[in-house]
Design goal:
The chain has one domain: Jelly Rolls (Sandwich). It is about 35% helix and about 30% strand. It is built from 4 helices and 8 strands. The strands form 2 sheets. It has a 4-stranded antiparallel beta sheet with strand order 1-8-3-6. Helix 3 packs across helix 4. It is globular. The relative contact order is 0.24. The N terminus is likely disordered.
Length: about 130
């Protein structure tokens, strides 16, 4: 199976769009088994795994392992609903993080980037659903 790190997540964005998007992001390191997202709570950030893994857990049953290039919080980002699962890091993981409210405002001001970004999120969700 091809690791997501071999794929170009932001290849549909121009260099300028990419730099603007990264400028409003922050970088965070998460410890082993640190919970990133808690089920049934508001998700304030949208996460992208830069290096590491995260485990999606629903009802104490590990469902999916996410690797480099995978988004987390994208369902909440699109729907505005609470988290549907717990997500834990394993091993130590570095992520790119966007405050969801700030990102939504940014995308409103940048419609071309918004169109590309929505496509990126849709592709990520599709890959997760299809395995």
């Amino acid at each position: 199976m091809k690791r997501r790190s071999d794929m170009k997540v932001f290849s549909s964005l121009s260099t300028f769009e990419f730099f603007k998007l990264i400028k409003i992001a922050s970088w965070k390191d998460f410890s082993v088994e640190e919970r990133i997202i808690e089920k049934s709570t508001e998700v304030k950030d949208l996460f992208l795994i830069y290096n590491g893994e995260a485990h999606v857990v629903s009802d104490n049953d590990k469902k999916v392992t996410l690797q480099d290039g995978a988004f987390m919080g994208e369902i909440s980002f699109n729907s505005g609903k609470l988290a549907t699962a717990d997500i834990y890091c394993q091993p130590m993981t570095r992520m790119v993080c966007w405050d969801q409210k700030e990102l939504k405002e940014f995308l409103k001001r940048n419609p071309n980037t918004k169109e590309h970004f929505n496509t990126i999120i849709t592709q990520d969700l599709t890959k997760k659903l299809l395995g």
